Amino acid sequence: AGSGWRRERSGSSRRSGEGFSAPGEGGKGEPSMVGTLRSEDCGYELQVRASWFRLEDYYRKAMNYSLMIIFTVPAQIYLLVKQTEYSGTQAGMAKISLACVGWQAVLDSYQCLMHLTAGIIVETLFHSFSTAAFFQFTLFSVFEMRVLLQIWKSRRPNSEQNWLEIRRDLSALYSRFYGGFLLGFVIMYWCADSPWFIALLCNSYWLPQIAWSAWHNAKKPLMPAYVLGTSAIRLLVPLYVFGCPENFVRVKPQFWVCWLLVVWVAAQVTALAAQHVFGPRCFIPDKYLPEVYDYHRRVEPEVLASAGAGDEECGEAGGVDCVICMNAVDATAPRERMVTPCNHFFHRECLERWMEVKMECPTCRGALPPL
């Protein structure tokens, strides 16, 4: 069959348009080859466009990317350890959203799998990419999973469970993690034509914490440095892919996606900062949230009598003993004492310090609602 071949190659001019490689395609703006294969007898026509890049430049870019990952993952581990120290008590861990940490652990597991696969496919990059994958595997499988277990344990103050019940709850926790892992693959498959949406969804990991803090009235659950540092580090990869003109994955820059991600993450950080400073329910109407328990509520005389407080009208003492400091509590002074849902009385300072460590009643070990 007869065929025609047309080849277009520009000279030294730097004009834009067809025949030039775009940023991210290699060649640093040098011309690419565009051609047409045409069979007049068969009636077929094949358009060909070839772009090129130097293999050594490609490996150099990939190595620089892997070094960025290798140096930033230890910073993530450091921030997570500091956050664990900040929320080192049972009450502090109970304020953290399980879904928030789990979301980040799933993202790190994806990156670990991606880097390990790239290192296996491209033998020259195996050492650098496998090192990055090892660091990320350590991050999500050791540190983040440990935090998930600590959060899970903190929400069970009365640990009177047998081994079968504990194993069942742990199985449910791991099932949620791997279920989220598989669900993420399904979402990425269905949204493969919209990578910007996948990046936006991946960087929405603070939303569960915002919702958890507002719903449960959890005050100051996260350390500000952890929020700022984690947000900045997790933006590096998507900003590199969508914003770097010479990224090694050869994706054309989409700067509007970069701005969208920065604004979206900044909005979440701003919401967390507002909750940290003005209270977890500062921007949500109370009618949409469950009622907060009042530790200074009025108490019926029958409750006072059953707690050991005397009748002041009969000349009896009006105080009960605080089991934390073993001193008397004036049960008739609502601003100075606190009463739990189980009708046990404590000094305000005593119970607030106690609840920083344990969210259970010092007298009967019943669960306590947040302040």
Strand order of the largest sheet: 1-2-3
How much of the polypeptide forms β-strand, as a percent range?
A: 5-15%
General shape: elongated
Main sheet makeup: 3 strands, antiparallel
What is the arithmetic mean of pLDDT? Answer: 83
The count of strands amounts to: 7
Gyration radius from CA atoms, angstroms: 30 Å
Q: Class by helix and strand content?
A: mainly alpha
Helix percentage: 40-55%
What string, H for helix and E for strand, traces the elements in order? EEEHHHHHHHHHHEEEEH
If helices are DSSP runs of H or I spanning 4 or more residues, what is the number of helices?
Answer: 11
Low-confidence stretches: 1-21, 312-318
Measured between the Cα atoms of the first and last residue, the distance is 83 Å
Name some characteristics of this structure.
371 residues; mainly alpha; 11 helices; 53% helix; disordered N terminus
Walkthrough of the structure:
- By secondary structure, the protein is mainly alpha-helical.
- 53% of the residues lie in helices and 9% in strands.
- It contains eleven helices and seven strands.
- The chain has helices spanning 55-86, 90-94, 98-121, 126-154, 163-190, 195-202, 207-216, 224-243, 255-278, 301-307, 348-355; strands spanning 3-8, 33-39, 44-50, 319-321, 328-330, 337-339, 345-347.
- Strand 6 (337-339) and strand 7 form a beta hairpin.
- Helix 3 packs antiparallel against helix 4 (126-154) and helix 3 crosses helix 5.
- The termini are far apart.
List the helices and strands and how they pair.
Blueprint: E1 3-8, E2 33-39, E3 44-50, H1 55-86, H2 90-94, H3 98-121, H4 126-154, H5 163-190, H6 195-202, H7 207-216, H8 224-243, H9 255-278, H10 301-307, E4 319-321, E5 328-330, E6 337-339, E7 345-347, H11 348-355
Antiparallel strand pairs: 1-2, 2-3, 4-5, 6-7
Helix pairs in contact: 1-4, 1-8, 3-4, 3-5, 7-9, 8-9
